[in-house]
Amino acid sequence: MNFSDRQIQIIEAATKRIDKNGIQELTIKNLANDLALSEAALYRHFKSKNEILLGMLSYFVIEMKEKINKIIANETKKPCDILRDLFNNQLNTFTQNPAIVSVVFSEGIFQFNNELSNKLSEMMDLMHEKINALIKKGQDEECFNKILSPAVATTMIMGSMRMVVLKWKLSGNKSNLVKDGQAMLNGILKMIEKR
């Protein structure tokens, strides 16, 4: 999916509005005011609020895929180090743009819209697939033990990291997300790394 510069501007403004005021304040009228556009001008780029939300998630998925693929392409590092790089990247992205967390972690936005729900699932599946593959590779290369299946280890990592991010968000972004996330990931990796 290709986005115009104006569409990206609208997506970023919508993300900031959700972060600052909640999803209920994301209306075409409010967004048009934020951008000093007419509602008609905004409708030329997106047909509805749901289309903006879908565009927002699609944009996040595109960016996430590019970053993840670049990190995973490094064949000189061990799977555990690639996992650390992967999560450091995600945590730093959230720290630099906390509004993303407000959108991605707002399940209420997605629960009644299959298209939005499917796009959020695509994001989660992408992360699950990449982490699962890294765990399996680490087990095959004998740097991870096989006590847990790759799928179980992946779910533990993703669930734990989600909890760290949610805690950070609920604290008003006052805790150190990168430090807390690294500590959580290192703790889990210690359980599955071969000694």
- The string of secondary-structure elements, in order, is HHHHHHHHHH
Strand fraction band?
under 5%
Alpha-beta content class: mainly alpha
Describe the largest sheet. none
Which percent bin holds the helix content? Answer: over 70%
Number of helices: 10
Can you tell me the overall shape? elongated
Cα-to-Cα separation, first versus last residue: 44 Å
Q: Over all CA atoms, what is the radius of gyration?
A: 18 Å
Give the uncertain stretches in residue-range form: none
Average pLDDT confidence is 90
Would you count the extended β strands for me?
A: 0
Summed up:
With 195 residues, this protein is mainly α. Helix content is 74%, strand content 0%. The radius of gyration is 18 Å and the shape is elongated.
Describe it for me?
With 195 residues, this protein is mainly alpha-helical. Helices cover 74% and strands 0% of the residues. The protein has 10 helices and no strands. It has helices at 5-21, 28-34, 39-43, 49-72, 79-96, 99-104, 107-110, 114-140, 150-170, 177-192. Helix 8 packs across helix 9 (150-170). The longest helix is centred in the middle third of the chain and has 27 residues, at 114-140. The chain is elongated, with a radius of gyration of 18 Å. The N and C termini lie far apart (44 Å). The mean pLDDT is 90.
List keywords for this structure.
mainly alpha, 10 helices, elongated, 195 residues
